[in-house]
Queue: 4 jobs
Job 1
Amino acid sequence: METVYDFTLPKGYLDGAGVLHRRGKMRLATAGDEIGATHDPRVLSNPSYLTIVILSRVIVELEGVEAITATTIEKLFTADLAFLQDMYQRINDIEPPVLQVTCPDCGKTFEVPLNFT
């Protein structure tokens, strides 16, 4: 079973010295990654920070960058953040639950995403 996946960022992480880093590796998430991230003080004060913390835990390599931290992820271009969020969902097989519904007017059956928020 593959647990670590290579990626190339669309734009790249630009470090303080002006060096662009594009290639990296992301591993599958564990329950501990997600649970631990919810206890991070930054997430407790701002729930939308959860993505940043989780990505900083599962990105195990970014060429030429010594340590991947939440601050590293914060400095990514938005296109790269969106790319990594999508990759995280795909490799961890996160699919939103769906509900089978039937239209009361036409009787057609279809699926709609179930949103718990």
Job 2
Amino acid sequence: MNQDPRHIRICDFQYDLPEERIAKFPLEERDASKLLLCRHGEVSEDHFRNLPHYIPQGSLMVFNNTRVIRARLHFRKDTGALIEVFCLEPAAPSDYALNFQQTRHAAWLCMIGNLKKWKEGPLRREMTVRGMPVTLTATRGECRGTSHWVDFEWDNGQVTFGDLLEVFGELPIPPYLNRETQDSDLVTYQTVYSKIKGSVAAPTAGLHFTSRVLEALRQQGVDMEELTLHVGAGTFRPVKSEEIEGHEMHTEYISVSRQTIRKLLDHGGGAIAVGTTSVRTLESLYHIGLTLLKNPDATDEELPVRQWQPYDLDPAEAATPTVEALQALLSYLDRHGLETLHTSTQIIIAPGYEYKVVRAMVTNFHQPQSTLLLLVSAFVHGDWRKIYDYALEHDFRFLSYGDSSLLIP
């Protein structure tokens, strides 16, 4: 590591983002968005549909196939008070797929809006699901940090919790859009390749891809692989401490298949990441591999990547070749007869971090003083301000529904 980032001051990552530069809605054609190109320090621009022209033949691109769930549930009390229950993370069962398949009961960790009006007793809502009447109740449990345990129960064994969310839930859109969710968001706030339900926010760099861009990449001889990181609401949590040492990163759940790890090895341990969520997952793989090299018998509880783990390595560990770390991961899957690695990451990527897997990235333009801006700065060796000044001066649209960039250091 070049430096310990704990004492980085977040105020050094401030820039002026006028409200009118925040894209409130996407363009009608996803791939008509602008693409900023930063290649070896040189900045230029094109349109996103031309992205395949800039991806070398034989490259490996990695996409996050998570799908945004309708995580916002609204209940009205007898008093008329409106309570919002925002499902953040499955609690019982803790596996996303199993939780969505539950009938009659599921528990989640939730953020609660208008909490002071929900002092006690269950909330109820009646609805119709696939032509059947269902009564859903929500009972508040213990506080867990900034969230609460909530037990959901319903009186129809033919209806799953996933069914309830599809009918009853509202798709969450980023708070900085300052508007209500609209029907159009149900389509436009999902990537065209989204598959695995679990996120409460979209991996927005992927929103620009269309079937024709993906096909052009295939024609170009680009390998494409998918992984899953379920994006949590913590991705929007601002850094409030003066130094980033005081900011606690949120935990996010990742799934990576044996095939994807094998493909990474086939490409010398390097890939082009689509979005910061893919970046965080790919870089976490390296550090999980280091854990396994040090302790091949590590338990599931020892695999999650802690926030500062990459910065606490001794020089010899930090010099471990990427392919060795990835091979250790593959061996772990072999020993346990697993097709997919399921774990979590709390990694913070900030200036001072040395990238191990990601060779280039596609990413949108991020909020001032955000951990995502720190991640970009680390990748472009501190040159983020030149990129953002160019984007502001050349009418690029910012944040989730805005334009994107291809960064090649």
Job 3
Amino acid sequence: MLNKENSELAINGGNPISNAKILIHKPYMDEDDFDSVDKVTRSTFVSGDGPECRIFEKGLAEYLDVKHVLFVNSATSALELAFRVKSFPAGSEVIVPNFTYTSTAIAALYNNLNVVLADVYPDNGSLDVSKLKSYITKKTVAIAPVDYGGIPAEMDEIMNIANQHGLYVVHDTAQSIGSEYKGKKTGCQGHVSTFSFHGTKNLTTGEGGAFVTNDDSIADRVKILREKGTDKYSFLTDNKDRGYYEYVDIGNSYVQSNINGALGISQLNKLDWMNNERRKIAEFYKNELSGIKEIDFMRITEGSNHNWHLFGVLVLLEDRYWIMDALRAEGVLANVHYTPLHRNKYYSCLGEDRDFPGSIEFFNRLLRLPIYPSLSSVDAQRVTQAIAKVFL
């Protein structure tokens, strides 16, 4: 039970559990990563879509068991391409979970599509499938489910509904690299999937993302769209000695540097190990915190294996910010992550709190704890000690 007047708490002037701040996240890199970047830099092939990029794409395709992986400069770009490749009529509607990063929505908006916000489950932030059909209209062309925190969305149910209504599914898998849904890695469930390799993600190339699909025609056009509308991809692949490539479509520059490709290769080689280290920390947290009745854990979708991109706990609304501040005073940099889209200025016209009860409850209760492969067992123990001190 919380005792906010406890004089031993650092927030009240007591000694903190940790004098050094325990970060909420930190990318894992080792000598293999440093060496891979050094070697490709010394090769002087540092421009986009280079040999290491192709090797990374091939390795990731094999890891995910998909036909096509295209390395791009961000998951945001991958999402934008996912809608651009379809050329839907302007004003068509895309269903987007209300609890997600803005990229999921702006990808549709950039393509002159309208966003319809959908409510999420209050216990894990995933698209509430029981409400999904209520958002479908004659203008609906696509659904963009999100794997919040690395927890796979209920993709079988979502795909069944999408197929019933002839809808395109862009699966925002930005946070779920290495997660599994019913025995398969995320990335193969929708028509397109989009991963992020930002510095905060389980696998990082600093900045970067991947466009993933099993559809040959979609992949072929994205190869052109991501390289300024040129046929440079086939030009490099076929190795034709003609000295030029052609401009065959509209496009933009979304390819990644060969340096980032090299980092992707070394990161992919240890992805399962990094995710397993996260899993060990998550299991430790759950074992140590399971006796605190004021804390609930986020629900993991049935049939899923979670990559533990985030570790979130659910606490009471009226105490959440005080708990966050108290943990920060103890040296644990907990935070609350982002707000529901409709509560942001740009999306405020798309609904009110009463329209999204699940989103509001989830946001009001969510508190994130530090988790990353290099988090030491000592610091993980300090995290649980700080929580126990605050709650007990």
Job 4
Amino acid sequence: MRFHTRKWVKPEDLNANGTLFGGKVLAWIDEEAALYTIIQLESKKVVTKYMSEINFMSTAVEGDIVEIGIEVVKFGKSSLNLDCEVRNKMTRETIVTVDNIIMVNLGDNGKPKPHGKRKIEYVKDRLAKKEQETNPNA
């Protein structure tokens, strides 16, 4: 799993127990899944359709740094299935896992739209491909 984003746990991220609020972590996960999907599908119109069981395993406290990992499980016709793990960067303890997040690509009409993608693509590879297409003699 690749860990793409880090978050610093601040006082406004805490619950009444002084630990990281689960709702805050879920918001971070949802945002990261959306950003990852937007980049993979090259489409700004994506929505979260489904999140499977959410397994809270440990927590974090103010000042900790957590990192969010996303991994593609499957490319659907108009969707992308992801796994997610959030862990404490300092202790390497897993804070939460989500085994299945389904993100859906939307057309202008707000309905699911096929995206045509079948494998993970990295931005650096896309840029190299575009450079080669625009400048084949380079």
